[in-house]
Amino acid sequence: MNIAKIMTPKILTEYIHENTTVRQGIERMRSHGYTAIPVLDKNDKYLGCITEGDFLRHMLRIGSADLRDQEKYRVGDLFRRDFCPPLTIEADKQQVLDAVLRQNFVPIVDDRGCLCGIITRRSVIKAFAEMFAEQD
């Protein structure tokens, strides 16, 4: 499977850095309508994803949903590093299929672990549909 062909490149992908405030993270997700977003370190290395649920659990833990209160906290303190594992650009069809069955999008990283882009469940389904159509 040619992942580069179906991947949305990093420049067209939303992501946040681990030192981003919780308020900024919430506002970025809300403005784009996402339920999860990749988290990167200062060198753009992929660390994991943060979800709406992570923000909700954080607000319940601190006892405040006031956005001004969220400026004291950093995304790096609350996201789950094991959520939404990435694939490399060399991943095969089965690895891609297994990943999109578990998650709505899959981060794609290079050999250094830096984010290159994402593939979405929709892009994978479309690619498989095109492969099946060619076989008919």
Question: Quick recap of the structure?
Answer:
The protein is an alpha/beta fold and 136 residues long. The chain has helices spanning 3-6, 22-32, 52-62, 93-102, 121-135, and strands at residues 8-9, 16-17, 36-40, 46-51, 87-88, 105-109, 115-120. The longest helix has 15 residues, at 121-135.
Q: How would you explain this protein's 3D organization?
A:
The chain is of the alpha/beta class. It has a single domain, classed as CBS-domain, CATH 3.10.580.10. It is built from 5 helices and 7 strands, in the order αββαββαβαββα. It has helices at about 5, 20-30, 50-60, 95-100, 120-135; strands spanning about 10, 15, 35-40, 45-50, 85-90, 105-110, 115-120. The longest helix has 15 residues, at about 120-135. The mean pLDDT is about 95.
